[in-house]
Amino acid sequence: MLEALANEISRRTDRIVLDKLADETGHATACDRAFRQAGWFVSRKPCDVNHYLDLRGRDYTAFLADRPGQLRTTLKRKAKKVDVTLSTRFHAREWEAYEDIYADSWKPEEGAPEVLRAFAEQESVAGRYRFALARHDGKAIAAQFWTVDGSTAYIHKLAHRKDAKALSPGTTLTTALFQHVIDVDGVTQVDFGTGDDPYKRDWMEQKRLRWRLTCYRRSSPRNWPHIAKAILRKLVRRKSAG
Length: 242
Hints:
Order of helices and strands: HEHEHHEHHEEEHEHEH
Pfam family, one: Acetyltransf_6
CATH class of the largest domain: Alpha Beta
Protein name: GNAT family N-acetyltransferase
Helix content: 40-55%
Strand content: 25-35%
């Protein structure tokens, strides 16, 4: 099917970029092979990383004991300063609180908030929705949206208000959600998505590459300079390695 898709795309465009592909499941390699077999020239490069956690049979207590000392100290000092609500079903008012927090956070503007909300509602219906909200003096100051699919928990969105940073509400929320997905949902792996943010290393223990495939239709003259440069770079790398 992938090769048929690659052939069909060649009738519609002369260049396509496939980004942030995983290869531990073989997907990046399968796409690479399909486009090459369909006659495309394919340039493959690492473009991002995925931080994840393999629990290896640990419960929440054992997992927390393995976290950096500074993180555990922060949790002890700050956890009692916020109230945490954890939901497994979508609630419109909680989601509106999340959107308000996000708008008041350090995060860039959400590209398609309506799509994210629809996804959250869909995951709630399917029983995969996990959402945590932190309040201080009754005001919602931080929120996180996770899902659980099979034996894996996925961390999708997190945000806190800029003026709430000193309370470390994100640490408290993350800990609450880890405890739930590990001890209640029984997951064996937690996936923190893409991005090499330093704070992810406090929670995750492994990381893996994500790949970008830039596929050029060989018959298009505007692609020839790009193809020539890619071939030249490959030759230079081989010479340097040799």
